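Appendix B, record 7
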Amino acid sequence: MSNGRTVPTRSHGLEQTGAAGHGAPQVELGDPELTARIDEAMAKVEELLGEELSSGADFLVDKVTHLTRAGGKRFRPMFALLASEYGSRPLSGDVIRAATVVEITHLATLYHDDVMDEATMRRGVPSANARWGNSVAILAGDILLARASKVMSELGTETVAHFAETFGELVTGQMRETVGPQGGDPIQHYMDVIREKTGVLIASAGFLGATHGGATTDQIRALQRFGSAIGMIFQIVDDMIDIFSDSRESGKTPGTDLREGVFTLPVLYAMREDNEIGRELRGILTGPIEDDATVEHVLDLLARSGGREKALADVHHYMDLAEEELARLPENSVTEALRNLAAYTVRRVG
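Structure tokens (predicted):
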């Protein structure tokens, strides 16, 4: 692995499930009343998101609303709203603000990630860095963090302290990915990166939604840990889809990560195998793959390796952890909705 990068930062997982946000399809949560409540609350999140991102000079607004206008699934704020349902103040004004903070922060990380990855597309439109250059994209991400901080300040010092820790982990994950395994275990490095880059913000959505909804301490911690597990599942599954999916079903071109020199979990497992497939993969995968024939050959090797099964075993491990946390929560329509969302993430990989 030439650059030590082992996880594609552009996706952050969670691109297939959404709530009734801007550009996102309505999600049926199993209980019509719950679905209606969450849809109504998501509309409020969208309204606040629009208000916060539309403030300031026109040349700022144009940049910071670029990805919001392109759509997005809004999974993180939806999870925050669902988490608030366990408390005495579900879907309150503070919950709406907390959900909005999480989404604005997520948007900021996308701007910065695209600069780091030299990405050219995001959500089906040119990335901010491709359209306006790296400097503008970085500053747009910074403005988004300023907007998140403004909303956060209305939620109290506990939220500010929590988010300082969360953002520290996000940056640590980005830095960890950039410097690579540095002689350590590439698979552990991969797990650490996706936990810090993907899992931590979803965990934060659960924590903030439950906290500002008035849930108990035990429920808050369970929802935070559930969010972390779901983040791990989504990213691993996304990485598996990139390699093993049928493009006619997934809409994705298999091997995109390989072309960029990004070696994800099933690839890392396959490369570790002490057999002819593993040896050949180690010989080929020394950096980005540029020609279609080599990509197809590597995909064939991966299909014949044990990488898929080992990665899927990790998915089921995190699914078990997610279920353990749900078992700590009251058995109601919200818990069932979260259980269904978790199961859906696994079904995506087939």
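Remarks on this record: Confidence is low (pLDDT under 50) at residues 1-25. Residues 186-213 form the longest helix (28 residues).
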